[in-house]
Structure formats: structure tokens, C-alpha cells
Amino acid sequence: EIVLTQSPGTLSLSPGERATLSCRASQSVSSSYLAWYQQKPGQAPRLLIYGASSRATGIPDRFSGSGSGTDFTLTISRLEPEDFAVYYCQQYGISPYTFGQGTKLEIK
Amino acid sequence: EVQLLESGGGLLQPGGSLRLSCAASGFTLSSYAMSWVRQAPGKGLEWVSAISGSGYSTYYADSVMGRFTISRDNSKSTLYLQMNSLRAEDTAVYYCAKGLEMVTKSTLDYWGQGTLVTVSP
Predict the structure, then answer these.
(1) What does the pLDDT look like over B99-118, one tens digit per residue?
(2) Cβ contact (<8 Å) for B95 and A57?
(3) Which long-range contacts (CB under 8 A, 24 or more apart) does A79-84 make?
(4) B104–A44: do the CB atoms touch at under 8 Å?
(5) Which parts of chain B sit beneath pLDDT 70?
(6) For a designed S-S bond to A52, which of A32, A48, A59, B107 qualifies (C-beta 3.0 to 4.6 A apart)?
(7) Residue contact A96–B59, C-beta within 8 A
(8) pLDDT tier at A28 (50, 70, 90 boundaries)?
(9) Angle A36-A29-B65 from CA coordinates, rounded to 5°
(10) What span, in angstroms and rounded, lies between the C-alpha atoms of A55 and A66?
(11) CA-based nearest residue in chain B for residue A94
């Protein structure tokens, strides 16, 4: 099973700042089958990024994904108040299609 | 508009069985893989199972292998999760999610609002 480790566990930033979230895989994620999701309290997750770097429909361009192999990054260029949430990465290249443990992005 | 509506959750005792349903609308179910993902109270997301658009390919997390069965009835636009031999650690909100493609190697682009399953004596 591919284990995804997200860091940091919690990230405290202010609106307008840049956020960099990391997702490291225990083995290579084939063909960049890596996605990022955002989840707010009481809501279902929302797809942000798939294929490591492709933005999902309707996702603002302040969200960007990068990386390959075992190291992936989600960057939010300028934080808006609505961006404070929990973020999960997921690999869907090899079953079981595991999730990372999440990074909580909180307002400083 | 894509909509996914889960149902069938509830409270039951350890060892019991339950079948979850996910009614899909706004798209042709047979054209897309589908998955179940769960979230225990206050915890992160855990992928549970996936099924290809045709239904021929199915995959499971080790934690549910042999106890849960995913299936689909494309004619009824409905996804199912049969859950047997339930344990306390299966307590979670269960989400159904639509794949971006027909194959299970597919990201999840739409999610339902979830149904709560509680396993307790």
C-alpha cells in the first residue's frame, strides 16, 4: 500500500499570504495519479487538483499543484478567507487508493 | 447538474449488516467509475472501495476486504455498498463519489453529502 504523508499537520497563515502544502508518497505515484481535495467542516470534500497539476472545473487559479514521483505540492498563491480548511492528497494509481492524513490550514 | 444522494445509514450492533445506496442523477452512471470513501468522527478520509463503469472491476481497502461488497445497477443509476460483519471501527460518514473516467484509476470529481453509519453495542 502507498502511504501518503502530508506536512505540516497544521499551517497557520494570514489572508493574502502564500500557502505551500506537501504530500510525500512511500513509493512512486505512477503517471502522476495524484489529487488534492479541500474539505470544510460539515461538508463533503471538493476536488481541487488532479493529475498532480490540473485544476478541476471552477477552481480558482490561485490553486496550483506540482510534483512527480514521490513528492507533490499544493500551492495557494494568495489566501482568501474561504481557503481556510483541511486539505487532503490522494493517490489513485495503485489500489488501495490511499489518502494522506490531511493538513489543516488555519487563520493566524 | 450532477447529484449523488446516499441513503441507508443508521445505528446497528457489532456483527450486523447494512446496505448503503447512492442514487446518481445528472450523468450516465455506466460511463464512470464510482467509489465509497468514509470518514470516522473527527478523523481524515479513508478510501473504502471502487468499481469500474462496467462493474467488472472492483477494489477494496484491506480494512474491509471480505466484509464489504461494492456493486452498481446502471439501469437504476444506483451504487451500493453491502457491509457485513460490521465493527465499531466501521463507524463513519460514508460518501459516495463519482470518478472522472470509466476506469477506477480516476480522481473523484463529485461527492455526495454522506450517510452516517454507527456501530455500537
Answers:
(1) 999 988 899 999 999 999 99
(2) no
(3) A79/A13, A79/A14, A79/A15, A79/A16, A79/A17, A79/A18, A79/A19, A79/A105, A80/A15, A81/A15, A81/A107, A83/A19, A83/A38
(4) no
(5) none
(6) A32
(7) yes
(8) very high
(9) 85
(10) 11
(11) B105
Q: What angle do CA A36, A14, A10 make, to 5 degrees?
A: 50
- Report chain A residues touching chain B, CB-CB < 8 A: 1, 33, 35, 37, 39, 44-47, 50-51, 56-57, 86, 88, 90, 92-93, 95-102
The phi and psi torsions of B61 (rounded to 5 degrees) equal -70, 150
Radius of gyration, alpha carbons of chain A: 13
Chain B residues within 8 A of A53 when measuring between CB atoms: none
In terms of Cα–Cα distance, which of A94, A92, A103, A81 is closest to A33?
A: A92
Strand partners, B12: B119
